[in-house]
Amino acid sequence: MKNNSMLNEFILLGLTTSWELEIFFFVIFLLAYASIMAGNSLIILMVTFDSYLHFTPMYFLLVNLSFLDMILSTVTVPKMITDFVKERKTISLWGCMVQMFFLHFLGGSEMTLLIFMAVDRYVAICKPLHYTTIMNHQTLIGFVLLSWAVGFVHTMNQMAFTVNLPFCGLNVVDNIFCDLPLVIKLACTDTYVLDLHVIADNGLFSLICFILLLVSYTVILVTVHHHSPGGLSKALSTLSAHSTVATLFFGPCIFIYVSPFSSFSVDKFLSVFYSVITSLLNPIIYTLRNQEIKAAMIRLRSRHFTSRQAL
Question: What is the CATH number of the domain that holds 199?
Answer without folding.
Answer: 1.20.1070.10
